[in-house]
Design goal:
The chain is mostly helical. Among the domains are: about 130 residues, Serine Threonine Protein Phosphatase 5, Tetratricopeptide repeat; about 150 residues, no CATH class. The protein has 45 helices and no strands.
């Protein structure tokens, strides 16, 4: 490129520098400009004015110049003509295709104006050279005459230090100095522009170049302040980097780049931290760290690059850019070949930005979305790493222990695997919590359960497994997870079972296992382990006495498809049957037991127990029928037990109870049949001893008196209690008596009377029965014996004496008195009268003594008889005296004298008889009017007919009515 064209290019760049380094939308605020005004709609002119060309305008000014006389006017016209020439030159330069001098005429005109001004110095109204110098400098620059342009600018600044063009002049001079490599001069001139204030359009570019000037002089730390100010102005806090204009973006990128270089020459990232701890933190500060790290990376200084990224993270962990720095560090470690550093860096990323970090807590879901992808990757990688490492350690430990136990040489014991299992589990868990709804989450949750299980953390493993199985319903791992939860739960049960202080906890785990097992069967019925697991759950529920729930599960198992093996089905029916039984659903229990029995082999050792349970179900059904009053069907059900379980204890009890219920139903014939069958089938059973009273009752009620008596006779010797034997003996006597077997009745009553003096009242009745029975057999001696026993036992009874015993004693005494009376009556008065009368009187005394005994009992029935008999005794003696045999051979007078003597002898007895009979008859006035009172009246009527022999007369009144 020709030197002249190069000069023009440099001049053009210098003049354009105000736009290259100044943001289009930044700089000092001058208020509204023409560009800010709203476009005004100009009314359409009727006669529009045509646009004038530069030549036309120049011709107008030259015409004006030819007629102008005023020096100031002429000066202004000349200045205008020079400006027009300047404009024409610029247009020509822009459209030129080859190098030329375009601004010579403009330069000449500005120089001429400067000469004119110098000639008019001192005249009033003479303009200054300030603008002319500026334009001349510009013309030189555009024409590539940089040195001359710089000299004119120096004159401008010197002559007009306060000029509005001073800042631009200094800036252009600084640019040249910088271009010439005079960085100190450039630094000073840029500083002057900066000192002019930030309202000059060259301010920001001057600041930027000031920093570069310092940088070129190796004053790196000093340059940072200037560069920082450039960034402060370009990177406003509320504007994103992407929103910057091209020029702003370019300057900012370049500034950061040079800052990165400066920091790299100093102490790297630490310099950034130190500088801005003094200057104040900047919102774009992370870009400086990133730029430095990127610079190191370009230079393949991998460790320095990664350290820079991590330095930022360590100092600003809770800032939005921090995660990207961590990622960059990890990537650099990978590029640089530092595998040992990658793992800790990824762990650090998870620690710094994961769900447990402050970073995570301080941000919403939108912000978290940026870090989640790497979290997912790192959590997956790290959890897999630690899990695999733990498994290897576990293998090494097992081998170590095996070698040690076998006496083989062993190396140093490896570290425990539990720590790594727990580390892996924690990472899996964090993944699950961070990404609860991804397709990978179920897998991670399952692996978390596996890691916790291997680490011995069974409760947490159980939670993880059940989450996979029942929350995620993972098709691939759900069933395995559900079953693993059950296995872990059983281990927890085993752990706590031996500790008495953990009884409540053990119960909790048992309950949990049951619920988990049911869920497993509910959610994964197609799994081959579902039915066995549910069976075990049903059994455990049954053991907790939750019968209805156990029955529901067992019934479900009996219908399970495909059909399970015989052992499992057997268990299901057994649980169902037992549950129904304990729920008092006996008909359903019977059905279940029968179903169970139907699938059991004949030689199955459990068949007898099942048969017995069927019988028990039937028996319980019968019981319920009994309770509701359905005795007849209950009896049939009880009797059917013999066919179901012949010889079983419950069948025996069923038949026995059936007999009792038949007795209650008063079905004596069938009751007898069942009792006889029982007696025949089970002759040695302990209940046999209880049959006699039942037989006795049945026979008695069916009027089979002899059989009833025989049954009672058996009881009298076989009953387990003395009381039972006593009662049976007495009753056997009664029933033998009732059946007409008098000898057997006498035998039993005698045995009873002799063996059981107590209870006194029953013994008394036994004696009385003997009196009666001996009376029937005409065995007067034995009858009298038992009559005397009645009298004697009553006399000795003391406090046990009863009205009945007194009555019977009176009865017995009366009998003996009557016997004496009968003997008394048989004695006749014969001659010699004195002798026979003596005998009669002796019998009278004995008879009276007996009747007095009767009277002592105070029993009215026998007292009236005794009194009557006593009265008759005296009356009889009186009659017997009068009817006695007369001595033979007596004359009439002697006979009369004899009879008078007899009457005198008989009269006291008659009067005595009348008194006693009258006294007995008078009992009627006290309400006693029995047969003997009547007899007394009858006897008195015979003795005193005038007084007691009157007949009542009845008067007929029927006719009197008419």
């Amino acid at each position: 490129m020709p030197y002249r064209l190069i000069q023009l290019l440099i001049a053009s760049l210098m003049l354009a520098s105000c736009s290259v380094f100044v943001p289009e939308d930044s700089g000092p605020n001058y208020g509204k400009t023409l560009a800010d005004l709203e476009e005004v709609e100009i009314p359409e002119e009727q006669f529009p004015v045509p646009l004038a060309s530069i030549d036309t305008i120049e011709d107008s000014y030259r015409s004006a110049l030819s007629v102008a006389r005023d020096p100031s006017v002429r000066h202004r016209i000349l200045t205008r003509l020079a400006d027009l020439q300047m404009t024409r030159s610029e247009q020509r330069q822009l459209s030129a295709t080859e190098e030329q001098d375009y601004f010579a005429d403009a330069i000449d005109m500005y120089q001429e104006l400067l000469v004119l001004n110098s000639e008019r110095q001192g005249e009033e109204g003479t303009p200054t050279n300030e603008r002319l110098l500026y334009q001349l400098s510009k013309a030189y620059a555009l024409d590539g005459r940089i040195q001359e342009s710089d000299e004119i600018l120096a004159s401008l600044v010197t002559d007009f230090p306060e000029s509005a063009f001073a800042a631009e002049a200094d800036f252009r001079r600084a640019e040249k100095a910088f271009s010439d490599g005079d960085y100190k001069t450039a630094e000073d001139l840029y500083a002057k522009v900066m000192a002019a204030g930030d309202d000059t359009p060259f301010y920001l570019n001057a600041v930027y170049m000031h920093g570069w000037s310092l940088f070129k002089r190796n004053r790196y730390r000093a340059s940072i302040r200037s560069f920082t100010e450039v960034l402060d102005r370009n990177l406003a806090k509320d504007i994103r980097f992407e929103e910057l204009s091209n020029s702003q973006r370019n300057v900012s990128v370049d500034t950061m780049r040079v800052l990165s270089i400066a920091f790299s020459y100093l102490d790297g990232a630490q310099t950034i931290t130190d500088v801005y701890s003094k200057l104040g933190q900047r919102h774009y500060q992370h870009m400086l760290y990133m730029g430095l790290g990127d610079l190191y990376l370009e230079k393949r200084r991998f460790r320095d690059s990664a350290d820079t990224y991590r330095h930022y993270v360590q100092n600003f962990p809770n800032t939005d850019p921090a995660p990207s720095f961590s990622i960059k560090a990890i990537e650099v470690y990978d590029l640089g070949g530092f595998p040992s550093l990658i793992l800790p860096a990824k762990e650090e990323y998870i620690t710094n930005y994961g769900i447990y970090s402050q970073y995570w807590k301080d941000r919403d879901d939108e912000k978290r979305a940026d870090i989640k992808p790497k979290l997912a990757v790192y959590l997956d990688e790290l959890s897999s790493y630690y899990h695999a490492r733990a498994i290897e350690l576990e293998k090494f430990n097992k081998k170590y222990e095996a070698d040690k136990a076998a006496g083989r040489k062993v190396k140093e014991k490896p570290e425990p695997a539990r720590k790594d299992f727990l580390k892996a589990a924690a990472l899996y868990e964090e993944f699950v919590l961070t990404f609860p709804k991804t397709t990978k989450t179920p897998e991670m949750a399952y692996l978390m359960g596996e890691a916790f299980y291997s680490a011995g953390e069974l409760p947490r493993a159980i939670t993880a497994y059940e989450t996979v199985a029942y929350n995620y319903l993972d098709k691939q791992r759900g069933a395995e997870a559900g079953y693993s939860a059950i296995v872990a739960l059983q281990e927890m049960i085993d752990r706590t079972a031996q500790d008495p202080n953990k009884e409540t906890e053990n119960l909790t785990w048992r309950t949990h296992k049951i619920e988990s097992s049911i869920s497993f069967a509910d959610y994964y019925p197609g799994d081959s382990r579902a039915a066995p697991v549910l069976t075990k759950a049903a059994q455990e529920i049954f053991e907790k006495n939750e019968y209805q729930r156990a029955a529901d599960l067992a019934e479900r198992l009996t219908k399970w498809q495909p059909r399970q093996d015989e052992k499992l089905v057997k268990s299901a029916w057994l649980i169902l049957a037992h549950s129904r039984f304990d729920l008092q659903q006996y008909a359903e229990a019977e059905f279940a037991y029968k179903q169970l029995l139907s699938i059991m082999p004949d030689k199955d050792e459990d068949r007898p127990q099942v048969v017995e349970r069927i019988a028990a179900s039937i028996y319980r059904q019968a019981e319920l029928q009994v309770n509701t009053g359905e005795l007849a069907p209950a009896v049939d059900r009880l009797l059917s037990l013999h066919d179901v379980a012949p010889g079983s204890e419950i069948a025996i009890k069923g038949q026995y109870d059936a007999a009792n219920h038949l007795i209650e139903l008063k079905d004596w014939a069938k009751a007898e049949q069942v009792l006889l069958s029982f007696q025949s089938r089970y002759p040695k059973h302990e209940l046999i001893s209880t049959l006699p009273p039942k037989f006795a009752l049945v026979y008695q009620e069916s009027e089979q008196w002899d059989k009833a008596a025989q049954a009672l006779e058996t009881m009298a010797t076989t009953d387990k209690t003395g009381e039972g034997r006593r009662q049976a003996l007495y009753l056997s006597g009664e029933l033998y008596e009732k059946s007409g077997r008098i000898p057997k009745a006498i035998e039993k009553y005698s045995e009873y009377a002799n063996r059981y003096p107590q209870p006194f009242d029953i013994a008394t009745e036994a004696r009385f029965h003997l009196v009666e029975l001996y009376g029937k057999t005409k065995d007067e001696g034995k009858r009298n014996f038992w009559l005397k026993k009645l009298i004697e036992s009553d006399a000795k009874a003391g406090a046990s004496r009863t009205d009945r015993s007194k009555y019977l004693a009176a009865f017995a005494t009366s009998k003996f008195a009557n016997d004496e009376y009968a003997r008394y009556e048989k004695i006749k008065l014969t001659l010699p009268l004195k002798k026979s009368l003596k005998k009669k009187r002796a019998a009278l005394d004995v008879t009276l003594a007996e009747y007095r005994k009767v009277l002592q009992f105070g029993v009215a029935e026998f007292a009236t008889e005794a009194n009557h008999r006593i009265g008759n005794i005296y009356s009889q003696l009186s009659r017997d005296l009068m009817d006695s045999q007369r001595p033979a051979g007596m004359d009439a007078l002697a006979l009369e004298q004899y009879e008078i003597l007899l009457e005198e002898q008989a009269l006291p007895f008659e009067e005595k008889a009348i008194d006693i009979l009258a006294s007995n008859a008078e009992r009627a006035w006290t309400g006693i009017y029995d047969d003997w009172v009547k007899e007394s009246f009858k006897s008195l009527a015979e003795i005193l007919p005038a007084r007691y022999g009157k007949q009542e007369r009845s008067v007929e009144f029927s006719d009197a009515i008419f």
